[in-house]
Amino acid sequence: MPIFTRRLTVLAASIVLAAAQWVGAPVLAADDQPQPRTLTVMGFGEVKASPDLAFIELAVETTAENAGKATTENARRTTAVIDALKKKIGAKDRVTTTGYSLQPQYANRRPGSDAPPEISGYIASNRVRVESRDLTKVGELIDAAIAAGANRTDVLSFMLENRAPSLREALRKAGAEARAQAESIAEALGVKLGEVLNASTAGVPMPQPIYKERMMAMAADAVSTPVEPGEVEVNATLTVSYRIE
Q1: Which residues have CB under 8 Å from 51's CB, separation 6+?
Q2: Are 217 and 156 in contact (CB under 8 A)?
Q3: What is the structure's pLDDT at 203?
Q4: Rounded CA gap, 8 and 146, in Å?
Q5: Taking Cα atoms as reference points, which of 152, 164, 170, 180 lies closest to residue 48?
Q6: What is the pLDDT of residues 83-121, one digit of tens each?
């Protein structure tokens, strides 16, 4: 056999041997250690608690034929609303302005008309938020604001002022649920559960407030507004990776 042919045969045999060794070798990490077998689960925890903080968002809307009259009347009524609320809230409670707008109103154009839209008046809107820690006064605050001149109630929400204890309890429940899931899966697969390799909350959601949106204002002489706070839910999600022995 020619020397050149013998060299090609030896080279081909070496390639086949190297390929066979690579296929049979274990997968190694960067530090030449085998990657651990893992089991990843996600646990969910939920805690319900009584709220201790209420937010009421109201608005005063006024309409006039010109911007000056709309804003002047709005300022007068908003001042009266704020004064009425401040007389009823506690020392730690607050009344703040969350938004103000002045927008033109346009008259309806005749069908087929090419004339530009004409301004028929202006709407001024001042939005006020009340923060109250006495939930028994929520209905009273709404009634006082409406009687003083507020004509729109946008949002009523109940929350926890300090959610940390409830969040920790929700995380504890999520961890216990994750462990229970992992143990059940390991038993079903016939493997032994090892140490925790990684744990992550992966973004814990904020407690969901209770909303009553866009409630239209009632007449000042109507029956007192009833309010039932209910409960606030605090949720936590925990993702845990365990080593499989």
Answers
A1: 135, 158, 159, 160, 210, 229, 230, 231, 232
A2: no
A3: 52
A4: 96
A5: 170
A6: 999 999 999 999 999 999 999 999 877 777 777 788 999
- Provide the angle, in degrees to the nearest 10, between the axes of the packed helices 138-148 and 67-86: 150
- Give the model confidence (pLDDT) of 34-58 as tens digits: 788 999 999 999 999 999 999 999 9
193 forms beta bridges with: 244
Closest to 107 measured CA to CA, from 119, 116, 96? 119
Most distant pair of Cα atoms in the chain: their distance: 114
Binning pLDDT at 50, 70 and 90, where does residue 129 land?
very high
78: tokens are 């908003």
Q: What is the DSSP string of 96-158?
A: EEEEEEEEEEEPPPPTT--SPP-EEEEEEEEEEEEEES-GGGHHHHHHHHHHHT--EEEEEEE
Dihedral over Cα of 166, 168, 169, 170: its sign: positive
Output the CA torsion sign for 175, 181, 185, 187. positive
Predicted TM-score (pTM) of the model is: 0.69
